[in-house]
Structure to design on (316 residues):
């Protein structure tokens, strides 16, 4: 949705005195949101996250296992080209600088924070204005995926939004920089989670397709649009090469179709908490906000709407 002020619909561009004041309020709200997301992880020694103890133990072994006779007799690192390695690469070096429990909570806090940051940057790149709307993504910063401990997946989703924002912002003015930076970015996304390059390809690709469609409908030159689309394909090649080189390319696991009721329950994952009553209340608030938004007639980005429909269809 496009960026507007809550009060009078003015874009938060900061061009006027009122706009500058509103921009400062926005930055204060952003800072408060960051504190609200990060603070809970440092109010407890062990956050109640399902996979967290396993992650912490593995990172400890990777960091100190070689120096411990007992651990080195039982465990040895085995590196290969696979996704889902983000915290395994970042966590052990940090453990040589900070206490183990602090490193674990920092990684968890980043898993909650990065997707929100990605949404905010993506919104700014798409609409070109600073808005209150993307701050609402902080409402679902704590969700079922985080409570399961799928940190690498959350990193991949947030960074995919950031990389899509990077592509959208630079593809017209600096196409070579956009292609080179995105090519490096998809490598990072791949080692976070395989969903990262796929989400980036979907978001950036559909933006280029929409622009191509508009150019064709307006009988404009298609050459520049086609070159950008070709550049996006080039940027995605490193992720394709890594996938082909990984064990995933040889995996032939059968598709598993979950019962419709399970699918319906999983729709609440973005709002899930440890208490079903809080989850239900959160869902009711989310639906109420969506209904309210429709009455305000927001401008919705066509490419993002198409991406949502594709993901929804894939989910079904």
């Amino acid at each position: 949705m496009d960026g507007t002020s809550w009060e009078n619909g003015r874009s938060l561009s900061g061009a006027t005195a009122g706009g500058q004041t509103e921009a400062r309020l926005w930055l204060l709200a952003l800072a408060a949101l960051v504190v609200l997301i990060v603070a809970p992880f440092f109010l407890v020694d062990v956050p109640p996250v399902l996979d967290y103890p396993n992650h912490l133990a593995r990172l400890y072994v990777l960091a100190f296992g070689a120096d411990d006779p007992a651990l080195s007799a039982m465990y040895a690192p085995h590196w290969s080209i696979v996704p889902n390695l983000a915290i395994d690469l970042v966590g052990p070096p940090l453990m040589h600088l900070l206490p183990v429990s602090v490193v674990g909570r920092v990684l968890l806090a980043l898993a909650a924070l990065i997707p929100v940051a990605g949404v905010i940057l993506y919104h700014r790149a798409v609409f070109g204005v600073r808005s209150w709307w993307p701050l609402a993504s902080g409402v679902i910063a704590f969700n079922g995926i985080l409570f399961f401990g799928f940190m690498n997946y959350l990193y991949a989703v947030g960074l995919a939004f950031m990389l899509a924002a990077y592509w959208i912002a630079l593809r017209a003015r600096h196409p070579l920089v956009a292609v080179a930076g995105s090519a490096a970015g998809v490598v990072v996304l791949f080692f976070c989670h395989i969903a990262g390059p796929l989400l980036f390809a979907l978001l950036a690709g559909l933006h280029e397709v929409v622009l191509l469609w508009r150019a064709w409908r307006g009988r404009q030159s298609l050459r520049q649009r086609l070159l950008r689309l070709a550049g996006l394909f080039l940027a995605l090649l490193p992720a394709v090469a890594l996938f082909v080189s990984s064990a995933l390319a040889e995996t032939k696991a059968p598709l598993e179709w979950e019962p419709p009721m399970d699918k319906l329950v999983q729709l609440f994952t973005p709002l899930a908490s440890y208490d079903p009553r809080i989850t239900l209340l959160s869902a009711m608030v989310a639906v109420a906000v969506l209904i309210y938004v429709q009455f305000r007639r927001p401008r919705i980005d066509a490419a993002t709407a198409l991406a949502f429909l594709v993901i929804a269809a894939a989910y079904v």
Q: What stands out?
A: Residues 3-14 have pLDDT under 50 and may be disordered. The CA atoms of residues 63 and 92 lie 4 Å apart. The radius of gyration is 21 Å. The chain has 13 helices and no strands.
